[in-house]
Structures are given as structure tokens and as C-alpha cells.
Amino acid sequence: MEKKRFLAVVMTVMMIISMVPSMVFAAAPSGELGGKLKVKGLAAVGTTVNADYTKVTPEGVTDEDFTFSWSRQTEEKELTQVGTEKAYTITQDDLGYRLVLVLTPVDGSGLTGTLTAKTLEVAATEEEAKVVAAQTAENTEDTQQAETVDGTENAQLEEDTEDADNTEDLQQNGESEQEDDSENTEGQLEETQKDTKEDSDDSQMKIYTEDQLHVGEDGNVQTDETEKNEPADSSEAPATEDNADASLEAQSLDVNTGNLNFSDIEENYTQANEKLSITVTNTGDGDITLKIPKSDYFDVMNEDGSEAVSGVQLAKGASLMFMIQPKTGLTKGDYSDTLIFESEENSEVAVQVTAEVSVKEAAQEQITAIQADPESFGYDNLKEGYETPEATTITLTNTGNTTVSLAQPYAEYFDIGELSASVLEPEDSATFTAVPVTGLKAGDYLDSIQIARTDTEGQEDVLTTIKASVTVSEVEKVYKLSVTPEELNFGKAKAGYSEAPKAQKVTLTNEGNTNITLNAPSGNNFKIGKLSATELAPGESCTFKIRPKEGLKTGSYVESVVINNEQQISAAVKVQFTVKAVRKAKIADPADNKITGISPDGYTTQSKITFTAVGAGMDNESPGKGDVRYVPYNWKVINTNSWSSAPYTAAFGITKAGTYTLTVVFDCQKYNGSEWKNTGDQDTKQVNFSITQAQTVTATPTPTPQPNGATAKSAVKTGDTTNIAPFVIILAIAAGCIVGVVVYKKRKK
User: Is residue 469's pLDDT more than 90?
Assistant: First the structure.
């Protein structure tokens, strides 16, 4: 019984082995991305940073499983993609920004989710990047340790920790690896804190517990060590409230007058002549440091006339005299200011004086003046028969200090426009235009345009004169006649055309400055229409039409149609027209269809028979509309075979002796002007030939040729190239074992 079980197990194992495929592929990693994504390298311009996913899960992922995306993050948290490779070289454009690496599975990888990692802000050099990395580590440590008095965490901790979350294992040489924001800050900064503390004592700080902290009367947080650091000398302690009140009562000031009223000043003064004095007295119990007031309208001076400055010591009972004077440059108006003299020790100890002055308008001399712009102008390039040129605008400005009433100006050779305003206040302006009158003959013309005012009695007083000139020269006669278009092409027509091409229009333009008289043009092979006008003034145009004559014979017609005129100006239009001979269509004769290459002597069963089908008209390489040709379509001996394109040649062999017929069918085609099209008609040609039995040379069987090129079928192939021989052997052994067990069992029975 145990032998039977053993044999059964062996056979089962053998059967399973036989069904195992020849190659087993390792399962690809799949599932949600996790673990830690890092950025290796310094965040500095010119350096190269790399994606490090050695701690990313699931295990076994490779570069082919991901796409890499490097982006630049601005202050507005906007991302701009800058790279798509595993490594990225930092550029100048990245300076001052953080780089964000996003790891995304490729489609079909079996992975889901994404991982993100950030760098610190990009520095200009590697040295600066090392400093930034070290400072980030130090700030993160300090922020994590700091707490407020009530034991709550400092709000800054969140911000610093967020930056620190991207820094891990900062090395001695300053190289940093930035990880995604979920990293533990303490583990990331361990090495950086160690290096930083070795370089600077500033990294050390005293951390106090909550029971060691308390708030003093001044509102500041104090520790148990605060009292130790306070000065022992009680004289350094601030004065008490009682002492401060005593000090205020000990200081006082007095002034001999409370108002300073200056005499009126005339506007545009160079310096105020009047100075008034005040005396300030220290009426307190001690010395006072006097603060001098500042004013926008008055100067405060010492008794000797020098500028008074703050900081003067005024002893108990002492007095100082100050001189007050209005500042230079005050414009018309009333000015008042309060001058406050006070103690620098206590601003509440002060006295004040009010200073007042009025600046009156200065008496003015009445000035009447008008300024013209321009003061002169001219027209020097006018020709006889000129059109009205652009007018000149003259601006009149009242530069005096009195109101002026202007009279309308006039001139002999100029048309003068109306004044825009006739009454001008000081600094006001008015304008008028001036343009030469039309029709002036050749010569020089001078004019004086007077600008006058009208007084209350209606009398005019000339204030200024504007010089104006015009130069008119004789016109040189210019004759010029243009033709548009200069060429006309009427295309082609077939001989015997029944209707001439449509007439085309020609335009003549007088581009000179003198009238032109035209004569009717004529042509030999072209009909010329009537001129729309025969007298052309400068700038005017006329038209006429041209077309080929009817019944012109085959040939090319080119001629120049001349437009004659009394001024003998050359003007012509070139015209051309072609008459083509009528082409006769080339109709191929189906009798010219033939089969070539078949030997009249016949063939043997071992012969290769080659032939060519020749269609009538196939040699027509420049077809015209209506041409007809024949193209070989198919051929048949035993089976029918078709041609798709030239050459129309075929080969075959027949292994059975006998008489056979080769048949070729030709399609009839007609050219439609752009391509050949089948008409549906066909022509058939045949040729007979004989096959005799070939003598056998050897006993080796010769494969029987298949008519029409047929060949034996090949076995169907699959894409699996696995050698199945070992599996066949194993399967045979297993089958033998089964047979042996069955025989053995029957014998036992």
C-alpha cells in the first residue's frame, strides 16, 4: 500500500513539473507608494540634484516604474516645471526658490499614489548652500525648544519645522538631502546640530522649566537668575513715581511776552527788516536744558544774530534773549505760528509765544506787452497754380500785467483767421491762422501783420508786428502719361473659335502738371474700343477696352498698342493672344493588342514559360483628351491571374504534357484630360502552345511544379520558441509510470 502511495505521489509531481512553463517571470512591485522620497545634493546654482527613492516602498521599484517632475516653486506657491529626468542641474533662474520633486508611477506599472520632496531655497554657491542648510538646522532646533510662559508652543515652530522637514542627515561637508514634508525634524537634523554646535557657541541656549519662569512687575519674563544679574548699586534703579513728581515741580520757565506782531511786509521782499525779541527765564529750582522751537515762517536767532540751537543750559534764575524774524520768501498772505520753548528734561515744562506777520501784494507798474510765436514765417516753395497750403498758427501771449483788448489783425497777401480770444488777462493766450491767398503769380510777397490793442476810446495801439513772406515761382511743364495695366494676356483659343475672348479694360492717367490731348489708339489683330475721354487734366484718367479679333488663324499674336497724343508722350500696352491648332484624339486599334514571348516550338514539362502582354496605345506618353488605349488586365492558362501595374509580364510552368491556350484580356481606357479611365470595353487575345514530357535524368523525385506559381503550404507557426522536447520526455516517463502501476495492480489481483 505504501508503494502505491509513493508511486502516486511521484506521478503527481511529474505531471505538475511537465505543466510548469519554461520561463517564470518575477512578480513586479505593485500597490500604494510609501516610504521616504529624498533629494540628494546641495541646493545651489550649477549643482546637480538627484531623486533618491531607496527608502520608497514597495521594494524593488526601478527608474522605469516612475516619471520624474522637477518644478520651481514661487512665493505664491505656483509651480513651474523645469525638468523631467531623475537628475536635475540647478540654473540661475532657480536662485532664491525651492525646487519640488514629484514621483508619479507610469501607466501600467501597478503602482498608485505620488510622493513629493522639496529642497531648501536655492543658493548662489555651494558654500552659501552649506550655510543655509546649517542655519536651517540650528533654527529648527531652537524653535522646537522654545516655549511661551504659559507652556504653549511658539507659533513660529510650525513654520520652521515645515522648512526643516525637508532636510535630513546634513553631512560634515554641508551636503543635504531634502525629504518630503512628513519627515521627523529631530531625526533629520541630528548631524547638522552636532556640526553647528562645534562651530559656534551661539548654538547653546539655556532652557528653563515653567516653574523657573515668572512675570515681573514691568511685564517682562524673568528667571531665577535675573536677580543675580541685576546691579547691586541701588542708585542705578529707576526713579520712583514720587521722585519723578518732585522733579517736575522743580522745573519751570517764563517768557516776557506772549505775542509778537510784525509790521506788514511787501511781497517779493529780499529780507525782513524787522526783528522782535523775547526773553526766556528759568524760574525753577535747578538748571534746564533748553529746546529751541522750529517754525516754517519764522527764524529763531540768538541775540548776536546766529541761529539758535537746542541744548543751551539755562541756570536757575538765568535769562536768555532770542531774536525772532520772518523767513525770506513768504508769499502774499497772513502767517501765524506758535513758538514753544521747552525743557529737554521734561516736555511739560514749556512756555509759548505767538508770532504773526502779513505779506501784502507789492505795488506794480502797469506793463502792456504781447509776445507772438512765431514772430515771423514764410512760404518759399509755392508754384503757380498752387493749391491752398497748410495754414500757419500764430499764438499771442499777454506777457504784461494788465488786461489787453486785441483788434482783429489783417494782411494784404494772407487770409487771416479770427482770433480765438480778443480780451487777454495777464499770461493768457489767443491764436489765429494765416495762409497765403490763392492765385498769386510768380514773385516775392512781403506782409506785416500788426497786432494792436483797442483802448477805451476806440483807438488802436500796435503792440507787435509779425513778418510774413510768400515766394511763388513759375511751374515747369511736366508731361507724364501712365498705362494700367502695361500688359494684357488673352490666353489661348482653339483654331476656329466661335467667340473671341472677353474684352479687357486699360486705364490712362495724366501724372504730369499740364493737360494732355489723346488720339484714338489702333491695333492690327486686336479691336480697340473708344476712349472715355480725350482731354486729360493733371491727375485725371480715362479708359478704353481691347480684345482679339475673331477668326485669327493658328499662331501667336503679340503687339504693342500705342496711345498717341499731341504732346508726343510715349504710352503703350503690350497685348498677346495664342490660337492653337485643334488636336485629333489618338484612338488605339485593338487589333494591335498582342502576346509576345510564347515559342512556336513548344515546351517540356520542365520548362519555365515567360510571356509579355502588349496593349495597343500603351506608348502614348503625352495623352490628350479623348485618346484611347488598351491595358493588359488578366491572363489565364489553367487559373486566372491579374496584373495591377506594369510590367505586364508573367512566368509559369506545366508538369503535364498536352496542348494549352494562353488567354490575355485587355481593358479599354480613355483619357479625360487629367487621367485614364476604363470605358468598360475589353479585348481578348489568345495563343496556343504544346507541352511534351521531359526525360527523367535521375531517380530522385522532382517536386511537381504547381501551375500559376502555387507552392506547398507551410505548417502554421506560433510565437512560442520554447524547446518542448524535455517536457515531452517527462510526459512520456509519467505515462509509463501510470501504465506500470496499472499492470502491477492487475497482477496483484
Answer: yes
